Amino acid sequence: MNIILLSGGSGKRLWPLSNDIRSKQFIKIFKRADGSYESMIERVYRQIKSVDADAKVTIATSRTQVSSILHLLGNEVNISVEPTRRDTFPAIALATAYLHEKCGVPVDESVVVCPVDPYVDDSYFAALKDLSAQADKGNANLVLMGIEPTFPSEKYGYIIPENSDPVAKVRTFKEKPDMETARGYLKEGALWNGGVFAYKLSYVLNRAHELMDFKDYEDLFHKYDTLKKISFDYAVVEHEPEIEVMRFHGEWKDLGTWNTLTEEMSEPVIGAGVLGENCEKVHIVNELSVPVLAMGLQDVVISASPQGILVSNTDASARIKPYVDKLPDRIMFAEKSWGEYRVLDVDTSSMAVKIVMKPGHHMSYHAHHVREEVWNVLSGSGTAILDGKKIELHPGDSLRIPCGAKHTVSADPADGLVMLELQIGKEISVEDKTKYPME
Amino acid sequence: MNIILLSGGSGKRLWPLSNDIRSKQFIKIFKRADGSYESMIERVYRQIKSVDADAKVTIATSRTQVSSILHLLGNEVNISVEPTRRDTFPAIALATAYLHEKCGVPVDESVVVCPVDPYVDDSYFAALKDLSAQADKGNANLVLMGIEPTFPSEKYGYIIPENSDPVAKVRTFKEKPDMETARGYLKEGALWNGGVFAYKLSYVLNRAHELMDFKDYEDLFHKYDTLKKISFDYAVVEHEPEIEVMRFHGEWKDLGTWNTLTEEMSEPVIGAGVLGENCEKVHIVNELSVPVLAMGLQDVVISASPQGILVSNTDASARIKPYVDKLPDRIMFAEKSWGEYRVLDVDTSSMAVKIVMKPGHHMSYHAHHVREEVWNVLSGSGTAILDGKKIELHPGDSLRIPCGAKHTVSADPADGLVMLELQIGKEISVEDKTKYPME
User: Fold this and answer.
1) B306 to chain A: nearest residue by CA?
2) Which of A380, B37, B66, B388 could potentially form a cystine with A415 if both were Cys, beta carbons 3.0 to 4.6 Å apart?
3) Residue A86 near residue A225, CB atoms below 8 Å
4) Residue from the list B288, B313, B420 with its beta carbon closest to the beta carbon of A295
5) Which tens digits make up the pLDDT trace of A164-181?
6) What is the pTM of this model?
7) Which member of B276, B304, B347 has the closest CB to residue A323?
8) Is residue B391 helix, strand or coil?
9) ipTM of this model?
10) Pairwise CA distance, residues B417 & B414, whole Å
11) Torsional sign, CA A388, A389, A394, A396
């Protein structure tokens, strides 16, 4: 099976564990059998591979998420990078062109498009395989997955099929309804629209060429930021008479907010935390190293990270977005392809950042123009390059990097490298970075 | 007036704002007229001086608090340092001898002894002056302050006076009663015992010589750790027939726990914090730089510091001590005479500590034997001495301090000095420190 996972998300609804770099699908919150934690994207990727070891997975995402994806999934996965955000139609068209031209998938093969973050069991991915097989048959141009509703939800759009067969023609679509209308839909046999569908590559490539002026993948990629923002629903689905829907009745959840996420936590405390007297339905997710102590609370979620601290009634936690929008948006932590960093301290003319580099990985060769930096090795070892000169780094060593000096470091292939980076200057900004090719 | 302020406290009940170094009286939580915050000890000292500008204030405390006291009050105040903890009788005897021999107070002058942390208005300190004047009269060996109870409390001991005159002989003392008994005491005209009393120096010095074998202050100081632990009540008050009590009917509160402290906060949020929807009676005290967001909570106190995060129902917050006892007790921040430090990161073989030094101040000349350190200057400037050699320090400079190397630094008299200290080694401990005289 070919599958495109759409990976987006602003990172506001699961603050402080998510931020503008770490979207919700990258939070390590699901316990593995071995006691370690995995993120939603790792969980979904693992599930796909367990159902179909040969599945060709392509993740369609923005530039800002590439490093996090490489950090979590390594180089096995294909990534279709959107140069800018242009809504789902351009993104799906680009990923489809990528699949054909970069991954060699023939145009008469089908592909399944699916969000990167459904909380489901393996039967869901078996159903995706069936969806793909149904698209292969070519009875319709698009085959949607319709999820059997378990309750009349106001949160989802609905698909009204022509009959209750396992696969049926779609009669019509309905926007998110109110509760009363939702009850009526359920009586009619309506299905939730989870945004999952399959098609033959040729279908979307043809629609793309009709709607956008481009030659091939490279051309589409290069003119991507000139494209109109338009959703796949609006550009394609609404104009397509030949759509089928395939029913799915397994578990399907969208864990997009703290109240839904905590329901699926297998234990009440992740990280350093203590539930004291009279705590009921209290969840702690703490990514700081210092402990959280909760006393006498009911129905509360507490989460702490280098980004901040949330303490919320569980129901109210679904509505944090407007409050988070007003908080400072400096990125305080991120996972990158080469490892991860955390901001430890922000002062008026300095910032301290802890950098943990994976063994054998290296940063880009870059320079800053209005700040100097000092690298201090805490553990592991590595080789820095400073304006073309190699410098070996060991614990206790400091390397001063003047404004404008080109620099990079590679971590020892066995030990990795942990450093404290001090940024010193009046105008410290992530924008102050110029990348260079290695000399 | 001479006054001895007893400064003790374990720092558990107001965790995470207090720790083994910063007791509750050092937390900056009371808003000054200028918008800045002061601690209980600063507030009390300021109040004493406003009532009696000539008051001679001596703080009786343990070695561990000296640096915090100097940090907050500077050198104006006298400090009687207890070499070890030996309960209130040895502490009061030592402070009384200190007052006589080190501060030149004649033995027929009186002194008032008072805890360092009553939450009171200025009239309380005017009453202390009256208490001292009453002791001067010599009608009794001890004059206690008796606080007019505002409700039948189970939290305080009671003083039963012989009559209801402003000053009366004490008939008897009662231990903390149950509610029913407390109601009975109130009908009898009993008073709360706030642990405040006055005496002539000669009285306590004589009792001290009767009960302990010592020549003078220096001798008492040097044999202090051989003294028996015994309270002033048990050693002196219980055996003294000539005790008077003076009534005080102003406001008097003991702000020893989060529930009592938050009642006196003039605003719900101190530090970076946002009260979102439906928050009622929620208090945030946040000493971290990242924000706390509270949503849909009632009667909750949230406090965050480098030590940890407390989220507690307000009533339950009075009972945090046994839970805090089980938390890691590494000191994560402290105020010292020369400035303050905060631990930013603890790793398996390194620790990162931010050090803010006051202008013109310096550390002790010291060495570590199983760790090396690297000092990184973030802002300000200073002069380090490393094994006798002077080294000027400016922003961006790093100084590597090998194991065993003697080192100190003094902060620039104008700019002060802010540094990031990295400690590197397998066994990092506050015990690994040897002080040396300057060469």
Assistant:
1) A290
2) A380
3) yes
4) B313
5) 999 999 999 998 899 999
6) 0.89
7) B276
8) strand
9) 0.89
10) 9
11) negative
